[in-house]
Amino acid sequence: MMESSNDEKHQQQEDPAAARNKPIRLPRAETLAKIKSIAGHGGLLATLMIYCLIGGVVFRILELPAETDRIIELKEILLLRRKALLASFNASGFADLADWEDAVLRPYEAALQNAARSNFMVEYIPRVSESGDDKPYQLVNERWSILQAVFFASTIITTIGYGNLYPTTFFGRLFCVLFALIGIPLTLTVIADYGQLFADAVSAISRKLKARLPQDLLRRCVPANDTFNKSLGALFAVGLLFVYLACGAAIFMLWETQWSFFEGFYFCFVTMTTIGFGDIVPTNPKYMLFCTGYILVGLALTSTIIELVRRQYASSWRRLQALSGPLADALKKIGEQAGGDISVLQTDLRKLLNMSMNPKRQKNGLMGGHAKNSEVDEAIEAILRDLASGRSRNIALRNQHQNALVQIIIYESSV
């Protein structure tokens, strides 16, 4: 017996050292689940980015030749009108100014307007005419570069559609239809996926903050009303959206030197809400990839915040509908019993007030607030006493008016 007890003690003494030497084993199932989750979210975003890249390349292949021919044609027309305008200054064939405007000036202005609508740089014409270069490919490449084409593809699948760049060929428009039919559902899937991630992250941060803060401080600073907490959460989400838009506006203000902060904020808001007027569009092709990523992340954040606000609106509307029925019945009985017994009115009002105060009673009861429930009961009784006293005063005043009316009738009849 003594030897067995000594062996047990010896094993107990060796157990701590053996435990230290054993390798630490992480739960393999949880690790694999996290890896799969991260790979799934990242794979969706990577698929969308690759899809945008492929779409941009295809749009460039389809639209670049037609855009080159169109720009060359605009250049030739503009050069011809410009030469005619310069030649008219030395000619004496126009005796009337109106004839000169109709024959020379107005066609030149129309050519300038067409070139401006096509984003053709007017200052490029004198340089071309002086150097004799008939290949404005550099200008076209800036318009349909890879980055510009990828950014254009992202505006299609996100349904923003600024309108500053669009396909003009038959095959380009056909590919645009097919590209949108596949890309829009894919984009909505990515936005919903990352929106859920943002919502879970906000909930996790909120839980951690509540767990670390002292409970006494939470009871004093945060009301126990669940409606107020939801409204506060929606307000915080809207504030987070405005911070994201402000950060984007500051970045775009640095890149687009002609933009003010408000113009950058306006562009970010119009983009994140998929309004996409197209009156303000970034023109620096170097930052188009960043702009595409910023838009995709912002759309996920915006959709999540809009959903939170929508739920708050729906909850408020349901509470209003729930109270409208009992309130309408109580007001109807008030009108029907304008001269009747006050006890029936008090009973109806008591039911209505108990119904409206019932969620607060339950919350106070769960929190151990019996004193608060008694305060609510006392408040209801005070309201009913005030109504009863007001009712009594109204009846007394009505009796006085009736007595005065009887006296007047008697006096008139005696006269």
CATH class of the largest domain: Mainly Alpha
Q: How much beta, percentage-wise? A: under 5%
User: How far do the termini sit from each other?
Assistant: 130 Å
| Proportion of residues in helical segments | over 70%
Structural class: mainly alpha
Radius of gyration: 38 Å
- Unreliable stretches (pLDDT < 50, length at least 5) are 365-369, 404-415
What's the CATH topology label of the largest domain? Helix Hairpins
The H/E string reads HHHHHHHHHHHHH
SS summary, helix count = 13
CATH architecture title of the largest domain: Orthogonal Bundle
The count of domains is: 2
Descriptive report:
By secondary structure, this protein is mostly helical. It is 82% helix and 0% strand. It has helices at residues 2-21, 28-90, 97-117, 124-131, 137-143, 146-157, 170-212, 215-221, 226-255, 261-272, 288-336, 342-366, 370-414. The chain crosses the membrane at residues 38-62, 144-163, 170-192, 232-254, 261-281, 287-309. It is a multi-pass membrane protein. It comes from Trichogramma kaykai. Residues 1-13 have a biased composition (Basic and acidic residues).
